[in-house]
Amino acid sequence: MQLAVHGWDHAAPDSGRRSLARWFCTGGRPMRKGLTLLEVIVTIAVVAILVALLLPAVQRARESARRATCQNKLRQISLACTNYQLTYGCYPPGVVSGLGSHRSNLFSQHVFLLPSLELHQLYNSLNFSLRYDNPANSTVARSSVSMLLCPSDFAPAAPSSEIIKGFTNYAGCFGSGNWERIFDGVFQPTRPRGIITDKDIIDGLAHTVCFSEWIHGQMNGNQVTSHPDGSGMLFRTTAIPACREEFVRNCQSLTDFSPDAPLGFDWLLGAAGCSWYNHQITPNGKSCMIYGNKYPAGDVFSAFTASSRHVGG
Predict the structure, then answer these.
(1) Which of 8, 221, 228, 249 would bridge 162 by S-S if both were Cys, CB 3.0 to 4.6 A apart?
(2) Which among 17, 258, 275, 47 has a CA at the least distance from the CA of 166?
(3) Which residues are CB-neighbours of 235 under 8 A, at least 6 positions away?
(4) Is there a domain that residue 107 lies in?
(5) Do the domain assignments include residue 279?
(6) pLDDT per residue over 80-105, tens digit each?
(7) pTM for this model (two decimals)
């Protein structure tokens, strides 16, 4: 037996049933296909609002991860210092100098920490009977080692025939900024004072800075280039200050950076601005060097300042 409703056969194919269902749902009006212009605009606006809300959160999460990576590298470098001290009974020299022509190779403390940072290949490829800038050591000298770079900072240019030195974001402390004591940090030249042991750190290990982070400069080919804010650059002055406070004021007001001195450049060399920093100026302040006959050792009486690109310092 077959049933019929208003002439519709219940035994009709499925396509007929679907057509009737559409007719009942739409009240006999034709079904609309697609979206109206207004609906598209509203959808785009909603998506844009969601992106605007989520993007800052994503950026903060990424920077938080980068900051954690930088801190972890700084921690590993500090552990490498401790391991060196436990092995040899002293901290690595800030620079090897004044020990005879074949031993004045001027290598920085970074070099002596390479084995403890699991960078044995770099360490073993160096010829310690030659100066750091000898062509035989150029492969390492031109390398910007990942372990010595903070991902929050701009990446340095890749090594090339024009990029002759590598960069680092981590510098060893060579002084507190006290003009009378000059070298009173953990890392010092082997001459005149010599190497540092635990007993030389009179303030205690918990109150003494070993390494810190800084923003490195940039090179474009063999030319120094500055960041838009002047960070990572060494400013210069010929003004001779009467005291440290005057020097700090002069430094913070400078706008002319030295064309041959990006910070963190040439990490293989034990020298201020290359692999050393001091506490002359508080973190994220400018780095400045005094040029003048009164201060022939300008790096001693100048500021090489810790800094970072992390939010909040």
Answers:
(1) 221
(2) 275
(3) 251, 254, 255, 256, 257, 258, 286, 287, 288, 289
(4) yes
(5) yes
(6) 999 999 999 989 988 876 544 445 67
(7) 0.76
